[in-house]
Amino acid sequence: MSAAQRPSNDPLINQWMPFTANRQFHDQPRIIARAEGVYYYNTQGEKLLDGSSGLYCIPLGHGRREIREAVSRQMEVLDYAPPFQYGFPPGFQLATEVAELTPPGLNRIMFAGSGSEAVDSALKVALQYHRVRGEGARQRFVGRERGYHGVNFGGWSVGGMVNNRKAFGLGLPGALHMRHTHIKENYFEMGQGTHGADLADDLERFVNLHGADTIAACIVEPVAGSTGILPPPKGYLQRLREICTKHGILLIFDEVITGFGRTGQAFASQTFGVTPDIITMAKAITNGSIPMSAIAVREDIQQTILDAAPPNAVEFYHGYTYSAHPVACAAGLATLKIYREENTFGRVRELTPGFLEQIASFKGDPEVVDTRGFGLLGAVELAPKGKPGERGFKFLCKAFEEGLVLRCSGDSVVLAPPFAATPDQISEMIDIVRKLIRQGY
């Protein structure tokens, strides 16, 4: 039924849903009514396993009392204050605690409201940093095919997912894209593949073609998430770091998905032993309870920007109404406290081997063309049926009916279980996926 044919009192008609097949949803809605622990519940009260940690943002499980109470207390004390030219204690405290988790030197924290906002903030920091140093010609950004950096103009311009780009014009001028790292030599190889480190040399090729003095920054996800979980080949991130350092290009790691424990350390940059110049983060910073994001910037980058401005002048003309929102900060502080007290990142390291072993067990199934995984991120790529993505979408819909909420990227079935899940609950997620594949979905 088309929107024009629907009655005006249809309860689904007024919300334009994001990244959703709205017309299909209106005909076959998938409504989530409540959540607790690692479960959602539909409108009939039936349990649904949360196989994707919300959108990679609720690692501690749903309904954490500690976060709820912290938010309530903050609402009673200070619900909002303007972040431009004024400050409030929760913002400074959260920045300090985030800086204790980030790699050494990346200790200047700027808050925003979403991963998309964090990416655009990082890109603008890079531009201004080079400009105040007398290198204003550095205006190009280098992203990667199949990269995802949010949906704001800067983010999708450096991103490389075609459906996120093709309807919206040319984007930022001068955005370049390296090749992606999903190569056949690494199919069915869990963790980091042994082939493809040389793909990082695409950045060197752009330097040779355009000149290093025109490139501001290179931005990549340490593990490409939204495109279907693509771990970096061994040596790839190290090679990017070498090239960036050699040519004065800032390296930005988009850790909106991997930040706060998904790879077993606070940040994937620590897991891989590669330190960027800027990190973006969001999602798990508040356990998904209230929208929030941040960037961590190298101390000397911030100081260079501050020192270039006249006394009493605003140094960086950027920010958002909800930057360091007091209630979001309270949620973030409560979340980080749980991470510390429950050794959450250590739990990820304990769960990872069994999880990846189960993802790898799909190898040999004639319906499966690849398996990939790193940390508590896994993907089972199905042989296409019909147009690209058609099988994946049908799989997602059927999984909901079978009691599992997950992500599908194209024809890749993606699992990112909450850190709070038990091994048995993770196995149950895997069992549902296996059952549906055997049924031909």
TrEMBL record:
<dbReference type="InterPro" id="IPR015422">
    <property type="entry name" value="PyrdxlP-dep_Trfase_small"/>
</dbReference>
<dbReference type="GO" id="GO:0030170">
    <property type="term" value="F:pyridoxal phosphate binding"/>
</dbReference>
<dbReference type="InterPro" id="IPR015424">
    <property type="entry name" value="PyrdxlP-dep_Trfase"/>
</dbReference>
<dbReference type="InterPro" id="IPR005814">
    <property type="entry name" value="Aminotrans_3"/>
</dbReference>
<comment type="similarity">
    <text>Belongs to the class-III pyridoxal-phosphate-dependent aminotransferase family.</text>
</comment>
<keyword id="KW-0663">Pyridoxal phosphate</keyword>
<dbReference type="GO" id="GO:0005829">
    <property type="term" value="C:cytosol"/>
</dbReference>
<keyword id="KW-0670">Pyruvate</keyword>
<dbReference type="Pfam" id="PF00202">
    <property type="entry name" value="Aminotran_3"/>
</dbReference>
<dbReference type="InterPro" id="IPR049704">
    <property type="entry name" value="Aminotrans_3_PPA_site"/>
</dbReference>
<keyword id="KW-0032">Aminotransferase</keyword>
<dbReference type="InterPro" id="IPR015421">
    <property type="entry name" value="PyrdxlP-dep_Trfase_major"/>
</dbReference>
<dbReference type="GO" id="GO:0016223">
    <property type="term" value="F:beta-alanine:pyruvate transaminase activity"/>
</dbReference>
<protein>
    <submittedName>
        <fullName>Beta-alanine--pyruvate transaminase</fullName>
        <ecNumber>2.6.1.18</ecNumber>
    </submittedName>
</protein>
<keyword id="KW-0808">Transferase</keyword>
